[in-house]
DNA photolyase PhrA (Paralimibaculum aggregatum), 473 residues
Amino acid sequence: AATILWLRRDLRLADHPGWAAALAGGGPVIPVFLLDPVTERQLGAAPAWRLGQSLADLAGSIRDKGSRLVLRRGDALETLRALIAETGARRVVWSRLYDSASRERDTAVKAALKADGIAAESVNAHLLFEPWEVATKTGSFYKVYTPFWKAVRGADLAEPLVTPPDLAPPGRWPASEDLADWRLEAAMDRGAAIVARHAAVGEAAARGRLGWFTGEAIGRYRAERDRLDRDATSRLSAALSLGEISARTVWHAGWRAAGRLGGGASAAAESFVSELVWREFAYHLLHHTPQIEHRNWRQEWDAFPWAADSDAAERWRQGRTGIEAVDAGMREMYVTGTMHNRARMLVASFLTKHLMVDWRAGEAWFRDCLVDWDPACNAMGWQWAAGTGPDAAPFFRVFNPETQAAKFDPDRRYRDRWIAEGRAAPHEDALSWFGAIPRGWGLSPGDAYPAPVVGLAEGRERALAAYKKLRAA
Ligand code: FAD
């Protein structure tokens, strides 16, 4: 009998334990992507758009191998039951997700299918280590990154699985919906600007990027990864988030580079692998403390006088705080769907400290704007920056965006790339931002650059005073 392979954040063919498990059944395999309400509710504008691109690419690769990707929209269990009735499948295989909404759904689906007499199996295709496999000596979970890294860095992970030569297509296909009808791009009003920047999506593009990066650029990673003005990181986050490439493939490529390159370059390659492990750590935390997505990880922060979403937060979202490094980051994200990691740290610190706005407002905006949006990394990143999370930057360490910019954007190239106001010959990216933003924002490149929404010293003092009060209480 046929097996249904329920694809989710694992949109690839290579190193895919789900494909391997489905094919091992010996019968035909029907690959399916379900746009169910849980998935839809999570998808912001940019992630939805990026998902659509990825699905189109995967459908093409599956077609090239003589099979088809079946698309269905609707409640997951009902849709799976309908597909089982249509195809006579006796087994459903999927790769695990770790956020609480997906977990709840999957647990319920598994129990219901089993009660129907259908075999339901889940595998790990998303992570290097299952979150429960890594434990402290006392059998607890890690709350601090460095010991987590030490615990896993020597792990002897199996080599990646190869792309299956034959996808075992069934003789008869269930109907598929049309990807275009899902209108995953509908909320993505940035138009051509973003499309142009993501011409290369999907599995082959991710492998190409990894090859380029680990071939050469990785040797400069440690020295340059914080530089806002350099293209010095792998830019694999969106591909990892959607599973276009497996973390295991990246892990092995990183360690191979560490072994091949000598001295400093080797250490740089290892530091790249250690960043990949931050993603694992984020999933470790998400699994053990699911509230990290929605609540202050340290509850004492519930008493902090966080400002609600405000006019200042709106200026932050619109990239017009009057602080160039912050505005550059926010504009970069709006137009390109991504933002440099150092800029993410800066803008998050500015929102939560200088503006004292609740980190959840920032988390929500990132979720809407980032093509690499990931439930674990985004939540951990925000709680880290706000000082509310485990192993977080302490609240009293307030980033000064100007000092940071002087250090990591010494020639102003990054800021000049995204700020047009007051520039005699603005960069085309800075102009493209004005072309992409909603007309309702009422902004034009000829405007004067805005005055700071808060003085840097004043904002810092205000935040530290509130922090002192919280500590005293
Ligand atoms: P590289 O430097 O090449 O790193 C390789 C991979 O390691 C990345 O692709 C990513 O999967 C992982 N990684 C690197 N740094 C981190 C980190 N600090 N935390 C977790 N994983 C990491 N990353 C996301 O993938 N999705 C998000 O939604 C997200 N939101 C963030 C929000 C905030 C406030 C902050 C401070 C960081 C966030 N990050 C997020 C982490 C990080 O900024 C991005 O992973 C990184 O910028 C992606 O660029 P890259 O692929 O070139 O990374």
Summary: Residues 127-157+193-288 form a domain with the Serine Threonine Protein Phosphatase 5, Tetratricopeptide repeat fold (CATH 1.25.40.80).
